[in-house]
Amino acid sequence: MLSREGRQGLTLISPPLLYALLMLAAPLAMVVTFSFWSQNYLDLDTTITLKNYRDAWTKPIYRVLIMRSLNISIMVTIVTVLLAFPMAYFLSFRVKRHKALWLFLITIPFWTSYLLRVFLWKVILGYNGVLNSALMGLGLIDEPMTFILYNVNAVVITLAHAWAPFAILPIFVALERIDRSLLEAAEDLGDGPVRRFFRVTLPLAMPGVMAATLIVLIPTVGDFITPKLVGGREGLMISNMIQIQFGKANNAPLGAALAITSMVIVASISLVIYMAGRWFRGRTP
Amino acid sequence: MRFMRIFSRNWLLIYASLYVFFLYAPVVLLPLFAFNASSIIAFPLTGFTTEWFSVLLETKALHRAVQNSLVVGLITAVISTILGTCAARAMIRFGFPFKRGIVGFIMLPLVLPEIIVAVALLVLLMQLGFPLSIWSVIGGHVLICVPFSVAILSSAFQGLDKNLEEASMDLGETGWGTFWRIIFPLILPGVISSLLITFTISLDEFIIAFFLTGTEVTLPVYIWSQLRFPAKLPSVMALGTILLAMSVLLLILGEWFRRRSAKRQGLDASSTRGFMQ
């Protein structure tokens, strides 16, 4: 028998819960079912088969795309988190007044249309782009650099930009929670700034770093705009293939199998990172 | 020597300035090219013009897309704020079985790649024989907006004094009456801030709209279709500039309401609480 409070709480949360069940759980279950079906030209063949998964795991093109997506996402995550940490540190430890204003300043660029931001990176990195004209104007290079657009580098730069606030904010929150007297204690006990950072600040900031890692890693695997606009041929990722399967190729079951395969891989990597984070935290109480 | 000393003392500030420059680099280009006379998006700039803005006024397809986006954004904002209010209130005020699991499930879209949400909904709608329309886009947008609304509103509910409710009940108000006369006015700034932010998210969202939109496209889908034509790019830049100005305005409004709500509840208005939690 539920308490009155429990009943009230459940009644109140049931509309959003029902919505999530209907619009998220049911569709996800549908995708899983779909991935075991197959496409017969215009019709769906609803006999259960593992063919899509066999294709996804054995055909070189899908394997290459999945591996590349993972590589790019991991690279993006590392770059984004490494770049974001000093910024978050600066916000938390150096900025004394107007912290909220600084945070606001950081988030503003991200309310421009995502599409346009990615497109503008293309303008910056292109052959006649802003970066090349600027460097040539300054006489630093003689001819335009070509290794920065339409390849993996461009995808990494663009995504590191796109996900910056999602990395800064969780790290910032974790740094804000650090009890400042602990740092003083470390100093009094003879730790220099570097030792203090590695022995006190960094371990205590680890939950934030972990959160940032997961927040950046998971969605970047699913992005298909950035690879399409700035990635060129060698920058295409698995999401582009999923989009093609649901669109032009008209093979939704294969698309579903690819989507689920990449989700499962990402979820297991995330789990490993999460466990590693907990283990790390367990060691430094 | 002197330079080195300044550098070593201020390297964090220097780094932060460079980082902010990196963050703003693409955005700053938007107005530059929107007012640039040349139809090619490249430096050097050639002269000032407002031609690209007047092109926008004449493009019928764009007006239709703007209209669709506004409808989608408004309906999304209202529905997700209502659902978010329920969830946030239940989460803060009540304990109930499976609370962590239920709340976690409602917040799940926050960490799910959008392409998965989009593909999943597409598959379901296809199977049910539902035609794609702006309603399918709204369905997807509400799903990803509810977690943001919950996050904003739970900080509004957190500051609420439980005694006020109890006093109201003791004085004979019904539960519903207490909600409208006591709780709602107190969380109103949070509600408005949630409406503004969910509206902005829906307005900018591309991936779900791309998969679920039928013949009636939303603004980002329209922009995507224009990016292929180099001749259309300057007017896309002009459009982007207008959108940026509008988003910033909406966000400043939202932030202002959030702070007012914090002040009304006697919290430190400059605190960053609720900004992220």
Which features does this protein show?
heterodimer, A: 285 residues, mainly alpha, MetI-like fold, two-stranded antiparallel ribbon, globular, B: mainly alpha, 75% helix, 0% strand, disordered C terminus
Description:
The complex is a heterodimer of chains A (285) and B (277). Chain A has 285 residues and is mostly helical. Chain A contains 13 helices and 2 strands, in the order αββαααααααααααα. Chain A has a two-stranded antiparallel sheet with strand order 1-2. In chain A, strand 1 and strand 2 form a beta hairpin. The model of chain A has no long low-confidence stretch (mean pLDDT 85). Chain B is mostly helical. Chain B has one domain: Orthogonal Bundle (MetI-like fold). In chain B, 75% of the residues lie in helices and 0% in strands. Chain B is built from 11 helices and no strands. Chain B has helices at 2-34, 51-58, 60-93, 99-107, 114-128, 134-158, 162-170, 175-204, 207-212, 219-226, 233-264. Chain B is globular, with a radius of gyration of 23 Å. Chain B starts with a helix and ends in a 13-residue tail after the last helix. The model of chain B is unreliable at 269-277 (pLDDT under 50). Classes of the chains: A mainly alpha (285), B mainly alpha (277).
